[in-house]
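ARCHIVE CARD
SHELF: 3
SLOT: left
DATA:
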Amino acid sequence: MHKMHFLCLHGKGTNNKVFEAQTAALRYAINSDQHHTYDFAEGALETTMEESIRDLFPATSSYYSYFDLSTPSSMVKVLRDLERFIVAEGPFDGVLAFSQGAAVAATLMAQRMKRDAAQERLRPVFKCAVFVGAAAPCDPIELEEHGRVRVLDAAVDGEVIEVPTAHIWGEQDASLYPQLLAGLCRAEGRNVYVHEGGHAIPGSQTDEALAGSVRVVKRCIAMAQYGQVPR
């Protein structure tokens, strides 16, 4: 049983400090039996503050996004920047990502599978992935070769992520993208938990949602560590 090193990617209009706070309870609970480590990679595009955090964090701070969908080249750039970050700061065993950060992570994982599936299966960029309230992952080929944004679709693209995954979202989240991303991940390694809330990361205020989230994350990690789900 070895500890895992996670890359953490925040949501749009937040920053590393916000994401550290948002995931504090989840990370603490995940670490109850193993002391995993976490590195946070901040977006480079300064943007307006996410509305849902206005009462919790100072308006005077800077807030960031990873990309702007109206500019597909910004998604191409963040994928290249993220690969450089992983080379410099990694390797990472897993990724913990929320909303736009989850879209970036999933797009990178899909890109590597499409580029060289045999190599990615042998040495995946992440051995597991935790996606919370995920935004839409894009087709990396359309981005790179044509500069167009096309959302990946399991009906067209199949299962493009083969490592174990955990998918957490709220039943009140208006977006269908978290479910869409789950469908793009290998069924045998897919661990899903749907809580009663909205587009948020379960924390200490929501005991039941936090417990359910921790359960699927630990299952996902165990699958990555042992190749199976412990009974």
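SLOT: right
DATA:
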Amino acid sequence: MIFFSGFKNKDVAFFHMESKTLIQADLLFNLPANEQYSKSTFPAFGRMGPSSWLHQKAVTSLGVDKEAMKRDATTVAGWDFTRIIPCHGDVIENDGNKAWRDAYKAFID
């Protein structure tokens, strides 16, 4: 588990090694959501996937301590996961580590 002290809402990420799954709350969105809840009434949020410019902008602006974000995002990127379970949006079943790296490329070397 990693506590993201540099993230505005002090979020956490959990790694389940056996299933190669990253579980996190507001660190990564994968919208539009077809599995969890109805689509957003705000069109821009409906396209907020890990590689979207909007997601990258949100991640950068919510990172209030850039050094802590760099440390924590890089640590998560080093975990061997393929699947991501987000609180917002559909589960990413494959290439989860790539999705994480896309979303956090501003903080990962």
